Amino acid sequence: MQYSVGVEYALHCLVYLIDVPSTESVGIKDLAEFQGLSETFLSKVFGKLSKAGIVSSVPGVKGGYRLSKSPEDISFWDVVEAVEGPKPIFQCKNIKDNGYLYREGCCSAPSFCTINLVMLSAEEKMRDDLRSKTLSWLNEELDRVLPKQIRENTRKYFSKSSI
Protein backbone atom coordinates (compact mmCIF):
# COMPACT_ATOMS: atom_id res chain seq x y z
CA MET A 1 0.00 0.00 0.00
CA GLN A 2 1.29 3.39 -0.89
CA TYR A 3 -0.22 6.86 -0.93
CA SER A 4 0.96 9.26 -3.60
CA VAL A 5 3.43 12.01 -2.79
CA GLY A 6 0.50 14.40 -3.30
CA VAL A 7 -0.76 13.51 0.18
CA GLU A 8 2.56 14.49 1.74
CA TYR A 9 2.77 17.76 -0.18
CA ALA A 10 -0.84 18.54 0.69
CA LEU A 11 -0.24 18.06 4.42
CA HIS A 12 2.90 20.21 4.35
CA CYS A 13 1.19 22.99 2.42
CA LEU A 14 -1.90 22.93 4.61
CA VAL A 15 0.25 23.46 7.70
CA TYR A 16 1.72 26.54 6.02
CA LEU A 17 -1.79 27.92 5.58
CA ILE A 18 -2.66 27.66 9.27
CA ASP A 19 -1.18 31.04 10.20
CA VAL A 20 -2.51 32.88 7.16
CA PRO A 21 -5.22 35.35 8.27
CA SER A 22 -8.70 34.42 7.03
CA THR A 23 -8.79 37.58 4.91
CA GLU A 24 -5.63 36.58 3.01
CA SER A 25 -4.44 33.66 0.90
CA VAL A 26 -1.21 32.09 -0.34
CA GLY A 27 -0.61 31.54 -4.03
CA ILE A 28 0.21 28.21 -5.60
CA LYS A 29 3.40 29.74 -6.98
CA ASP A 30 4.69 30.50 -3.48
CA LEU A 31 3.66 27.11 -2.11
CA ALA A 32 5.26 25.29 -5.06
CA GLU A 33 8.44 27.36 -4.91
CA PHE A 34 8.82 26.73 -1.18
CA GLN A 35 8.37 22.97 -1.70
CA GLY A 36 10.55 22.83 -4.81
CA LEU A 37 7.94 21.33 -7.12
CA SER A 38 5.92 22.33 -10.14
CA GLU A 39 2.94 24.66 -9.88
CA THR A 40 1.02 22.36 -12.22
CA PHE A 41 1.38 19.38 -9.91
CA LEU A 42 0.46 21.36 -6.81
CA SER A 43 -2.50 22.99 -8.60
CA LYS A 44 -3.92 19.52 -9.23
CA VAL A 45 -3.53 18.59 -5.57
CA PHE A 46 -5.13 21.84 -4.44
CA GLY A 47 -7.97 21.36 -6.90
CA LYS A 48 -8.79 18.12 -5.08
CA LEU A 49 -8.46 19.78 -1.67
CA SER A 50 -10.76 22.57 -2.83
CA LYS A 51 -13.35 20.13 -4.19
CA ALA A 52 -13.31 18.38 -0.79
CA GLY A 53 -13.91 21.68 1.02
CA ILE A 54 -10.58 21.65 2.83
CA VAL A 55 -9.32 24.83 1.16
CA SER A 56 -11.03 27.61 -0.72
CA SER A 57 -9.57 29.45 -3.66
CA VAL A 58 -9.37 33.21 -3.82
CA PRO A 59 -9.45 34.50 -7.40
CA GLY A 60 -7.47 37.44 -8.71
CA VAL A 61 -3.92 38.67 -9.00
CA LYS A 62 -3.30 38.34 -5.27
CA GLY A 63 -5.41 35.19 -5.15
CA GLY A 64 -4.45 31.82 -3.85
CA TYR A 65 -5.72 29.41 -1.24
CA ARG A 66 -6.67 29.46 2.41
CA LEU A 67 -8.11 26.90 4.77
CA SER A 68 -11.89 26.50 4.56
CA LYS A 69 -12.11 24.90 7.99
CA SER A 70 -10.40 25.21 11.31
CA PRO A 71 -7.17 23.16 11.54
CA GLU A 72 -8.82 21.18 14.35
CA ASP A 73 -11.47 20.06 11.88
CA ILE A 74 -9.12 18.82 9.14
CA SER A 75 -7.82 15.32 9.75
CA PHE A 76 -5.07 13.46 7.97
CA TRP A 77 -7.79 11.14 6.66
CA ASP A 78 -9.69 14.10 5.17
CA VAL A 79 -6.56 14.98 3.21
CA VAL A 80 -5.83 11.39 2.16
CA GLU A 81 -9.40 10.89 0.98
CA ALA A 82 -9.41 14.23 -0.89
CA VAL A 83 -6.16 13.49 -2.72
CA GLU A 84 -6.46 9.72 -3.21
CA GLY A 85 -10.21 9.24 -3.34
CA PRO A 86 -12.43 6.98 -1.23
CA LYS A 87 -11.57 3.67 -2.93
CA PRO A 88 -10.44 0.96 -0.48
CA ILE A 89 -6.80 -0.04 -0.63
CA PHE A 90 -7.54 -3.77 -0.89
CA GLN A 91 -9.63 -4.69 -3.90
CA CYS A 92 -11.14 -8.12 -3.30
CA LYS A 93 -11.61 -10.03 -6.58
CA ASN A 94 -13.46 -12.96 -4.97
CA ILE A 95 -10.87 -15.38 -6.30
CA LYS A 96 -12.17 -17.97 -3.83
CA ASP A 97 -15.15 -18.42 -6.15
CA ASN A 98 -12.75 -19.64 -8.86
CA GLY A 99 -11.31 -22.42 -6.67
CA TYR A 100 -11.51 -26.03 -7.82
CA LEU A 101 -14.22 -27.17 -5.39
CA TYR A 102 -16.47 -24.24 -6.25
CA ARG A 103 -15.93 -24.67 -10.01
CA GLU A 104 -16.79 -28.37 -9.81
CA GLY A 105 -19.94 -27.67 -7.80
CA CYS A 106 -18.79 -29.73 -4.81
CA CYS A 107 -19.20 -26.80 -2.46
CA SER A 108 -21.13 -23.60 -2.41
CA ALA A 109 -19.07 -20.47 -1.88
CA PRO A 110 -19.74 -18.57 1.34
CA SER A 111 -21.29 -15.14 0.83
CA PHE A 112 -18.26 -13.35 2.23
CA CYS A 113 -14.50 -13.56 1.91
CA THR A 114 -12.62 -13.82 5.20
CA ILE A 115 -9.50 -12.28 3.64
CA ASN A 116 -11.49 -9.27 2.46
CA LEU A 117 -13.04 -8.83 5.93
CA VAL A 118 -9.61 -8.85 7.59
CA MET A 119 -8.19 -6.39 5.08
CA LEU A 120 -11.16 -4.03 5.39
CA SER A 121 -10.93 -4.19 9.18
CA ALA A 122 -7.21 -3.29 9.06
CA GLU A 123 -7.94 -0.39 6.69
CA GLU A 124 -10.61 0.92 9.04
CA LYS A 125 -8.15 0.88 11.96
CA MET A 126 -5.68 2.85 9.86
CA ARG A 127 -8.41 5.33 8.85
CA ASP A 128 -9.37 5.77 12.50
CA ASP A 129 -5.77 6.60 13.37
CA LEU A 130 -5.55 9.08 10.49
CA ARG A 131 -8.86 10.62 11.58
CA SER A 132 -7.43 11.16 15.07
CA LYS A 133 -4.55 13.31 13.76
CA THR A 134 -5.48 16.83 12.67
CA LEU A 135 -3.64 19.77 11.16
CA SER A 136 -3.64 21.37 14.62
CA TRP A 137 -1.94 18.30 16.04
CA LEU A 138 0.61 18.36 13.19
CA ASN A 139 1.31 22.04 13.72
CA GLU A 140 1.93 21.50 17.44
CA GLU A 141 4.08 18.46 16.73
CA LEU A 142 6.21 20.40 14.23
CA ASP A 143 6.67 23.15 16.81
CA ARG A 144 7.91 20.48 19.19
CA VAL A 145 10.26 18.56 16.88
CA LEU A 146 11.64 21.19 14.49
CA PRO A 147 14.12 23.89 15.40
CA LYS A 148 12.34 27.11 16.36
CA GLN A 149 14.22 29.06 13.67
CA ILE A 150 12.93 26.82 10.88
CA ARG A 151 9.35 27.28 12.02
CA GLU A 152 9.81 31.04 12.31
CA ASN A 153 11.44 31.31 8.88
CA THR A 154 8.65 29.26 7.32
CA ARG A 155 5.99 31.48 8.87
CA LYS A 156 7.85 34.61 7.71
CA TYR A 157 8.11 33.25 4.18
CA PHE A 158 4.38 32.77 3.88
CA SER A 159 3.42 35.96 5.68
CA LYS A 160 5.53 37.98 3.22
CA SER A 161 4.21 36.07 0.21
CA SER A 162 0.57 36.75 1.10
CA ILE A 163 1.11 40.49 1.27
From TrEMBL:
Top-level taxon of origin: Bacteria
Pfam family, one: Rrf2
One Gene Ontology term, aspect cellular component: cytosol
Species assigned in the record: Paenibacillus solani
NCBIfam families, per database record: rrf2_super (TIGR00738)
Database matches in Gene3D superfamilies: Winged helix-like DNA-binding domain superfamily/Winged helix DNA-binding domain
Transmembrane segments: none
GO function terms (MF aspect): DNA-binding transcription factor activity
Record's protein name: Transcriptional regulator
